[in-house]
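REVIEWER CHECKLIST
Item 1: Sequence provided? yes
Item 2: Single chain? yes
Item 3: Sequence as submitted:
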Amino acid sequence: MEPAIMSDNSLPRLSRFFIIFVCILQGFLTYISHHSSSGSLLLQPSTFLYWQALLLVLPLVFAFTIVRLKDRFLWQNLAICLLVILLTTTWVYWNVEGVDNVSQYDGVVVPYLCSLCVLVFIALPWLQTRIKNKQWNVSYATIYDHLCINAITVILTLLLIILFWGILWLCVELFKQLNIHFFHHLFFRNNLFIYTINGFLIGVGIRTCRLQTHLMKALRNLLTIMVKGLLPVLSFVALIFITTLPFVGLNALSSAWSPSALLMTMVVLLITATNIVYKSGLKVQPYPTPVRFMVNASLLVLPLYAGLALYAISIRVNEYGWTPVRVWGYLVIIMSVLFSCSYAIAVTRSRRTWLHPLGMINRVLLPGCVALLILANTPLIDPYRISVNDQMNRYLASKVDADNLDLSLLRFKTGKRGQEALMFLYQDASFISNTQRKQRLEKIMAEHNRWEVNRAVDDLKDIHPKLTLDYVQKKLVLAKNTLKPEAAWWAILQSNPQVDIDLCLRDSDVCIINSLDLNQDGIYEYLLCHIERGSDISCHVFAKQGEEWKNIGHAYFPPKTVNVAYFERALREGNVKTRHKPWLDAEVGHEPVKIYYPEAE
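Item 4: Structure as written out by the authors:
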């Protein structure tokens, strides 16, 4: 007989109120932390990260675990969470201390906050059972019940949030038809409303799911029935893939971009589905004998999947070195190897009861996952130290060419260690001996986020004082027989809002200058064309009017309309000439009329 889920119907009224109140407070304080003045305590660099972690974890742990406010186990649990957050956040803060852009910060902090969410989700069942059972050591059936109910609670709460905002969006769109925009500003431009209402919805979702224990149990049973039907299909796919692989060879995996994620997806799905079905098969065999043998066979080959994922990621590390993503992926694969091997052993040791040792295995490995997540955010397993040290060692050992060194990784995804590595490269005579490589390094050091095309030239000056107008002049290509424009032309080029000079500074693009007399007055104008593969080609015409250069014309067209390689070659060779328009403008009396001829052209 399955153990009953401990009912929360006896949850005191005050505790129900505090679940919603604490979640609203979470939303409000999150709003304050993101929108208060830069001089406030919350936005100090030394405290902001702590606020982010604390506001993410403590209110949710409180809402999921509270039974009575006076319960000392509740506050002990929160104290344990507080201690873990302070320890891990201190190390993460050290990794981002002194970084000068948002992407560097987010490249370290976002993975940390995501790991905190996973850590809390795995640890919650133990925190909940400690309050309800007054001890840590409980049966796996109890742990599983809480894991499953918590997962359903998260899903239903997210669904509630999506539906609520969908209704508000419908309201806004309806009133827009009446030319009333008040509700758009109230609902979607008011950050205080957005944060607090999301906190309220989270509180309502958690409180409702905790009270509706019979409904949650019914949903869990429905989920078990559905997964019970899908597990044999998943097992069949796992078996036919592993039996096909020897005929294809491992080279098929090594040539793929990154098969580790797909292999891990199969492992995670099989482990999750097996655990869900396992709850319905403790006393009675869940499948007929042939189907059960197929499921068991898929669990026996799970170590092969984990081993192949380990092999695939090892190839990537050997070719390109460690990155934070690969370190995290490697940790996930290591845990999957332990789970896979343990589940395979459970199959071989099961006689009368299907997968009898599974509960004991999960009771050991799930806390192991919690410990690994904590260690990954400490100096013992630091993805950013491992990644930066490996990338720089590969460069110094000439395992990677200087031109192929991943500067974007060092700049945006590894915190202050990556920033220090870039400064080392900037002082490395061998690295900056190549002018183009030095310019690429200077550009990446000037960029403030990984999606940024490039920073303005004034920002580049902050990195190195020599990055002045000469830098732009070196990047733009003068066509054959084109004289270098005067200083006034270069000045207007940088300040002209119609021309994005930053595009010309990218290594993947080219900008070419041609001189030609477009109005037959004996004075040359300049044609500046920007070519980016796969994007629009743009050309701008600059003419001197009086003592000032002005952008007087432009053209845009997609690359599919021309042979891009021939177009670029002709521009470089100066093979550009004027062409008379066959269809002229008109003049009505003394009033000029410009006529466009799209059909004729």
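Item 5: Key structural point noted by reviewer: The first helix runs from residue 13 to 35.
Item 6: Recommendation: ____
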